[in-house]
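Changelog-adjacent note: as of this version, every example in the card shows the full chain rather than a window. The one below runs 294 residues end to end.
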Amino acid sequence: MDRNVRRADRRRLLVQALWTAFTNGYILGFLEGRIYTGRSKLLCVPGLNCYSCPGALGSCPIGALQAVISGRNFQVSCYVAGLLILFGSVFGRLICGFLCPFGLVQDLLYRIPLWKKLRALPGERWLRRLRYAVLVFLVLLLPALAVNSLGIGKPWFCQYLCPAGTLMGGIPLVAANPALRDAAGALFCWKTALLLGIVYLSIRIPRPFCRYLCPLGAVYGWFNPVSFYHLRVQEAACVGCGRCREVCPMDLPVWKQPNSTECIRCGRCVAACPVSAIEREKICLHFTARDGKI
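Full-length structure tokens:
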């Protein structure tokens, strides 16, 4: 692997580890097997960070959104929606690449030297659309429409699909609480089996959950083309060598679509480009001094 790419990976890994430690730093929660309920839990962090994680100091925006939608009187939280728009408008899927604890887990798993590594799965084009179905049905529609006799719904994504919740919340809590171990049933077995499947795929292919299932990545991806942080390819300098795609964990033709909704802004393409044709830009408004136009 190119030395510049390795250096970029180390820097990103450091940011990921520090952010994960910062947002999940309540050590007593892990020691005592209980969820932190302090005032900081009222705040949503940008990434997929499970509320039920014993160390979590903030809330997951997807979990918070479902909690409001599934309430007795259907509502949409302007606070959560506003934060998603703010995070997406500024960073896009940079959050997926740098500020998501479960993204860090997948990156570390892919480093394990087991089995043959894959660039993509069969049916990749269609599989990538699954996360939009997850967002629409499990996050938005079912919590609002599939309600009990009291008019209260369930957080379908968190309860039935989210592997981050199982890894960071379910397993630590069950391990630390005998009563929860006795109560764990078919649902916990399903979530554990699903997590094991994601772990296996993460060893074989980069970021499978981000590619195929993550509704938060689906939301942030919509902002990639217009976010303040985005990429630009100097077409005059690009030689079309394809090196950017070779190092891209999402297997994207970066020279064609530098701001694809799939891009997690890991920076590997920027580091790998032999002619420095790929640039990071931190604002989306460009002024031409000659004529004063935007």
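Structural remarks: The longest strand covers residues 230-233.
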